[in-house]
Amino acid sequence: MTKILRPLSLGLIILAGGRSTRMGRDKTALPWRDTDLLTDLLLRSQAYPFTERLLSINRPYESSHLPAKLARTVRLVIDNYPDCGPLGGMEAALYSGQCDFYLVLSVDLPFYDFAPTPDLVKLLRRQPTLQAIIPRTENGQDQPLAALYSRQLLPAITDHLQKGNYRLRHLYQDVPAAYVDETFRSALYFNINTPEAYEAAKGRDTNSRRQVPVVTLTAPKSGDGKTTAAAAAITELTHRGYQVAYIKSSHHTVARRKTGSDTDRARKAGAVSVCLCGPADYPMGTRKEDYILALSQQQLADLVLVESRSHGPFPQIDVTQADDNQLVNNILFLTGYRSSVI
């Protein structure tokens, strides 16, 4: 007699009960894509037919921004073990939930699109004894707050909490678990913990809607190293196979091409096109930032670097605050060509 397998029920748990101490403000309410971070994540969750959606938030949440059908599937859960971090939120949600397994996500994942979910479910069906499936991204980094967990872990979670062991890693390392390589889409797991990370996420998202992505290299004053940083970045980016255009924002009314100038240095570094933008170049009544952005979108290049003290399009990198060794990787993240800042 053929055994009929019971359909696997999969729910979603969003952990939004953190204190956001490093961010300095409530991450759930951060503006994101015409709404806020939490609402956008819930809207994105429609990409997979979860049986239920549980929101661990520990404070009132107004779901009026959500489609009515989606809002009816979202249920708020309050921690039974307050101030115990993600493990406390998971305990409350698993105790309240009814599904076999749950995809557990932190609220601060601005790019997570749920594309990995079917693959995680397929792996679980092939290895039904698993109790956790943990994605791994660049440099072998575990992503336990974008992972799959069995509801059977509830007793173990409760035991950990009662013993004061709040490390999520200690939980999944002691149970049957699988680790999946997600290096090829590490950006999905980029999380917003600090104001700097929030700005980086906004910059990358803005560039995703542009025909040619743009990054502005800035500095508080002349002589702070903008051109040196730009030339070094162009050289390295060109070496990696990217075609880079360069736009110099200038205060000079008349600019002449000359050896050793900033534009000459950019050209010699490998820029495929070089533009100088001064006050006489943009029409009266047009903001310089808008003109530079329009000019950047006309360049036949993979990306555009703008050098400017204050008139460059967003996103911007202050070269006096940036890590020289990570500048090119940060540029590639902001332009969407690299999956992680790291």
From TrEMBL:
Swiss-Prot/TrEMBL cofactor(s): Mg(2+)
Domain Molybdopterin-guanine dinucleotide biosynthesis protein B (MobB) positions: 220-326
A family per Pfam: MobB
The MobA-like NTP transferase domain, residue ranges: 13-173
Residues annotated as binding GTP: L15, A16, G17, K27, D79, D108
GTP-binding found in the keyword field: yes
CDD domains associated with the record: MobA
Record EC number: 2.7.7.77
Alphabetic keyword roster: Cytoplasm, GTP-binding, Magnesium, Metal-binding, Molybdenum cofactor biosynthesis, Nucleotide-binding, Transferase
Subcellular location as annotated: Cytoplasm
Cross-referenced SUPFAM superfamilies: Nucleotide-diphospho-sugar transferases, P-loop containing nucleoside triphosphate hydrolases
Chief site of localization: cytoplasm
Residues reported to bind Mg(2+): D108
InterPro entries in UniProt: MobA-like_NTP_Trfase (IPR025877), MobB_dom (IPR004435), Molybde_CF_guanTrfase (IPR013482), Nucleotide-diphossugar_trans (IPR029044), P-loop_NTPase (IPR027417)
Family to which this protein belongs: Belongs to the MobA family.
Domains as described in the record: The N-terminal domain determines nucleotide recognition and specific binding, while the C-terminal domain determines the specific binding to the target protein.
Function: Transfers a GMP moiety from GTP to Mo-molybdopterin (Mo-MPT) cofactor (Moco or molybdenum cofactor) to form Mo-molybdopterin guanine dinucleotide (Mo-MGD) cofactor.
Protein name: Probable molybdenum cofactor guanylyltransferase
Species in which this protein is naturally found: Megasphaera intestinihominis
